[in-house]
Amino acid sequence: MSRPLTFGIEIEFALAAIPKGKENPCPELEDEIRGRITNFELNEWDDRFGLMRRSVESHVAATIRAAGFPCDPYSPDMGDATKWEVTTDPTIKVPTNGLRWFGIEIRSPAYYFCSESLYAVAEVLDLLKSTYCIHIDGNSCGLHVHVGNENRNFTFQHVRNLHAFLFAFDSQISSLHPPYRQNRYWLKSPRALFHWGLGGQRPPTTKEGILRYLQATDFRQLKQLGAPHIGTSAVNFFHVFEGMGEGRDTKRTVEFRQHEASLKGATVINWIKTVVGIVEYTRTIHPDAFIELLAMSVESEDVKDEGKPILAEEGFTIVDLLRAIGQLGPARFYKDRGIFRNRPVYSVDQPYELKWDTTPGYDCIYR
């Protein structure tokens, strides 16, 4: 039996704080936020030097440590895979209600994929929700999951299988995410990036894309199919390709970063199960069974004439796909939650750029 895969998460959110001695600028929210706001031993001058921000980082780290999890605030040498880490992110959009808001990013250790690790993640999420006043902006806050093979790189055959899978079932996977997490600069669809591999002339058919990936013979060819923008993909293989050489100091992980941020345990855990399940399936599946599954995506092209359903919406949805790869728990979760109808359309002016039709009827969750 193969050893279990490893995973780590990164979650972004905004946290409210009031410096000590300052009155609550939002008295109408007194009952909701008082007790969830840290009173910092700092004054306004400290904020000019970033000390208030560092104090927020330290307080969050101390809260996580007090619950029994090793955790450090920001430091120049962040990257200890054995600890939770806390830093701030100025790109996170924050409310403008008078409170002092700080963009926070939490990074988990590299965990082996098992129930105990998932419980640990859920416990930290619950701790954050119960301790702080938190706001999540869906556009600027994401949930990133890194999936790794311990400290080893993935095999070429495994990475090739994973590329073919993600290309074939891009629409199914994307249906788990709202339109504002679709095909943005750092969330490029595998289909959109693949257009570069065809010279930007036209979007490939599902069959063409699958065959191009399965016919690749080395890492270099796989990388070229998404070049030059592999680092902007919703599924980022940058660290895998960087780790091809022996002795390379890199994470060697596949980073899934399309999911919107959330501190809901069930939401985060089921997404972790989903992406780890996809990576595990493509590692262990027999070639004949794999080809049979990929053939499901070729039976109906993703882009149809107006009024005709696409396979990801009717016939073989993400729920069906998860059942097919043995992920019954996430399949039940997403069936109950519902999925998004994100129909892919191609830009006439730039045919290699995949966009999303968000006209009424195609940007809502349905069951």
Automatic annotation (TrEMBL):
InterPro entries: Amidoligase_2 (IPR022025)
Lineage top rank: taxon: Eukaryota
Protein name: Amidoligase enzyme
UniProt organism field: Amorphotheca resinae ATCC 22711
